[in-house]
Amino acid sequence: MAEKISTTALAKLRDTSAKQLFNVLKTAGYVNRHNDTWILTEIGKKFGGEYVQHTQYGQFIVWPENLLIDTRSTSGKALSATQLGQRFSLNAKKINQLLQELGWIQKTANGWQVTDHGLKMGGYQKVDTQTGHQYALWHDSVAHNKHLKQSVTEFSGLQADQYATDKSISRFRQKFEAKYRTLDGHYVRSKGELKIDNWLYMNGIGHAYDRQLPIEEEVLSDFYLPSGKVYLQYWDKDNFSDKAKETIQAIYQSHQFSLIEIDSSDIDKLDDVLPAKLKEFGIVAY
């Protein structure tokens, strides 16, 4: 594999300044700027960008020498929630709710705050200098993000008939073996997941089951608790090898997703284990 070079070195190869190159990369959606720091976005990663750690210079971004900077599908203009909603025929409130559910923004007393994950997706944190109100703008590439488009599709019921056919349900159940019905109507894969789902339901904690992580890798989380913006993973010893567990844990860690982990030994003492774990994320069980 060819060695990757810094943005400054890449700028020299292209006979331009590092500042100009960073601005081009930002326009293309490869990097984002926040608190005087350049952040590598998910698009930038797709085109070969990555972080390296240097003993003297700290962390910085490196690129392939032959980096392709694709600006054909973007104007580089920032979109408000209202403008983004116009792309999907939804109002700004619904767009912000979907972005919050994806973990890209979070509600604060002063408005909407872009999360670390949202920054990687092209979110820009803005503050009204007069009122102190926080809000988010978005790189226009977000309108093409497959996870946001999927959320809009699911929320709006678009193509619902397509996904509700007997054939698709059969494939889903066969793949995930979701055969245990919980109190709230979910179908889960194991008795351990059944007990967790029922515990969450009986304690009044809203949750999604088998939620796709909002990343390129195809990874399903056992549960997602939107009130705490935290995922819950059950490590069933019969279904996860140590290697598989470590691989999935590394994915959560690399994307900085909040995670609650439950082992097989915890299943019969959820009343003792879960309340304390949930409290760390502001979730109070009844």
Describe the structure.
Strand 11 (180-181) and strand 12 (187-188) form a beta hairpin. The protein has three domains: 5-63, Orthogonal Bundle (Arc Repressor Mutant, subunit A), CATH 1.10.10; 78-153, no CATH class; 177-279, Endonuclease, Chain A (3-Layer(aba) Sandwich). It has a four-stranded mixed beta sheet, covered by helices on one side. It has a three-stranded antiparallel beta sheet with strand order 1-5-4. Helix 1 (7-13) packs across helix 2 (18-28) and helix 4 (81-88) packs across helix 5 (92-101). It has helices at 7-13, 18-28, 42-46, 81-88, 92-101, 116-120, 146-156, 160-163, 166-176, 191-202, 242-254, 270-279; strands spanning 5-6, 31-34, 37-40, 50-54, 58-63, 78-79, 105-108, 111-114, 123-127, 134-139, 180-181, 187-188, 208-212, 220-225, 230-235, 259-263. The protein has twelve helices and 16 strands. The chain is of the alpha+beta class and 286 residues long.
Short description:
This protein is α+β, with helices and mostly antiparallel strands.
Looking across the biggest beta sheet, what order are the strands in? 13-14-15-16
- The CATH architecture category of the largest domain equals 3-Layer(aba) Sandwich
Mean pLDDT: 88
Q: How many separate domains? A: 3
Fraction of residues in helices? 25-40%
The radius of gyration computed from the alpha-carbon positions, rounded to a whole number of angstroms, is: 21 Å
Give the overall silhouette.
globular
Just give the CATH class of the largest domain.
Alpha Beta
DSSP helical segment count: 12
Percentage beta strand: 15-25%
**CATH topology name of the largest domain:** Endonuclease, Chain A
CATH superfamily of the largest domain: VSR Endonuclease
Instruction: Give the CA-CA distance, first to last residue.
Output: 54 Å
Structural class: alpha+beta
Largest sheet descriptor: 4 strands, mixed
